[in-house]
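anyone seen this seq b4? input:
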Amino acid sequence: MPERPDQSGLAPRPIAFCITELDPGGAERAMARLVRSLNRERWSPHVFCLGPDTPLAGEIRSANVPVTCLDVRRRFDVGVVWRLKRQLRNFRPALIQSFLFHANIVSRLAAPLAGVPIVVSGIRVADREHPWHIALERATRGLVTHHVCVSEGVARFARDRMRIAPERTTVIPNAIDVEAYQHVPAVDFSTLGLPPGARVLVNVGRLSPQKGQDVFLAALGKLIPSFPDLHLVIAGEGPLESGLRQQARQLQIEDRVHLIGRSRDVPSLLRAASAFVLTSRWEGMPNVVLEAMAAGCPVVSTAAEGIPELLGNDEFGLRVPIDSVPDLVSAIGRVLTDRDSAADRTRSAVEHLRQQFSVTAITAQYERLYSRLIERNSQ
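predicted toks r here
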């Protein structure tokens, strides 16, 4: 498709996006949403994925955004820096924006070699699991023009742990297309083996220490005596699956805990759930909370990074301290017993998303940042 000049008569500026992989996770979908939403009269995006080709890459291409997958199969394939450098030299972008840790590091190394003048790095999680990630981000921060943090909590983490100067960070949250979730059909939980009429709590996320599902199971064990029809559906995969199954057996709630693996139908799960519960110990700005709010599902979440911006002071959902089983039990109990208040919060949450987290508003924030950085570089 030929490029159209913008209103100033200039051709759209080429802009590169680099991401570690294109499996359909939160960061990947956020990046895909952004590149599809950019004003194509001003910007000509090209996505570079370090990993193999995927269906999500095809979705991006269907929006007339080129995607080049570099097919890295090993975590420490240093040759990818040179392959990305060659691609960038051919594309000659005015700016490169990276997403996720490995793409951040590779982009920082490849961009100067390719003559890319502006490097924007995305920090999407307050990573407390990999100290070497933080050390490498800190060691290479001088190669970055500007950092985009996905929440105020992540920005504080970047300043405190990565020693990134505040003036080199901008907070731009994730976006959500609220209307896309309003008419999604609710799943029939009986198709997943749950009894008819069960009240269902849903958790979505990788089965890992970060996501804190062990705390959720402990809370569920204390809730069931008061709510004998209560069940928990966890959608996700990860290294803690066997440990969670063992914990459920020890708590004698294995018939109430349903580990369904990775789901491609999360919106339908959320539409049918009595509540969505996030038990993370750290986050960035969890997309699944945005999805739950957009789907009209009551939310209970730990006060991880990004949650205050989403839930406010309990106006749009309930926040609890991290790792606190009693507080989690109390908050879930409130949602299950006071349905009118829960419904009021969900209605307010939908309006909150429409006003503050729309795709149009968030894309405009990125475009303003890119324009400002390009203008500053040209002076």
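Residues 179-356 form a domain with the Rossmann fold fold (CATH 3.40.50.2000). DSSP finds 15 helices and 13 strands in the chain. kinda curious what u guys think
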